Automatic annotation (TrEMBL):
InterPro entries linked to this entry: Flavin_Rdtase-like_dom, NADH-dep_flavin_reductase, Split_barrel_FMN-bd
Protein name stated in the entry: Flavin reductase family protein
Domain Flavin reductase like positions: 23-168
A family per Pfam: Flavin_Reduct
Organism: Nonomuraea spiralis
Length: 173
């Protein structure tokens, strides 16, 4: 049952649960941002559902990372980061990349991109990027990155995030 419009509270802020509930009606794709940690040459990464193309000329993309991320500093330390566009069968990969701590690559197969970073087996596409700018934005940081190289990788449908859950994309008949 729909509820009425959310009104700012006495302090001028919207209820964060309501904000998340309403924005959850916007479906997004899911990506894994990967790199080799320059401190130990081990693969590192994180999941993001806030990824978008920004510009064709120059080729720019953007994604958002929480200020509290312990993975982003490791990924950010690399000269090049790789965006992996996850496929609908990669929910468990997304969960691993989104987990806090631990070996996020345990049991995952990957090959190296031209930039040397992990391209996850089964990902639909990859983009090697260099970070151009980081913009603080509330409890996140907006990362703008220049695409250096990119390619398609595997066939299939995208992993889609909608109303707090994951699914696939069904093409109309």
């Amino acid at each position: 049952m729909p509820t009425g419009p959310s009104q700012p509270s006495g302090n001028g802020h919207l209820d964060s649960r309501r904000f998340r509930q309403v924005l959850g009606r916007f479906a997004t794709g899911v990506v894994a941002i990967t790199a080799l940690d320059p401190a130990n040459d081990q693969p590192c990464g994180l999941a993001a559902n806030s990824f978008t193309s920004v510009s064709l000329d120059p080729p720019l993309v953007a994604f958002c990372v929480a200020h509290t991320s312990t993975s982003w500093p490791r990924v950010r330390g690399a000269k090049v980061v790789t965006v992996n566009v996850l496929a609908e069968h990669q929910r468990s990969v997304c969960a691993q990349m989104a987990a806090k701590g631990g070996d996020k690559f345990a049991g995952l197969s990957w090959t190296g991109s031209p930039g040397g970073n992990p391209v996850l087996e089964g990902a639909l596409a990859w983009l090697d990027c260099v970070v151009e700018a980081e913009h603080p934005a509330g409890d996140h940081v907006i990362i703008v990155a220049r695409v250096l190289q990119l390619d398609t990788h595997a066939d299939g449908g995208p992993l889609v995030f909608f109303q707090g859950g994951y699914g696939g994309f069904v093409e109309p008949a």
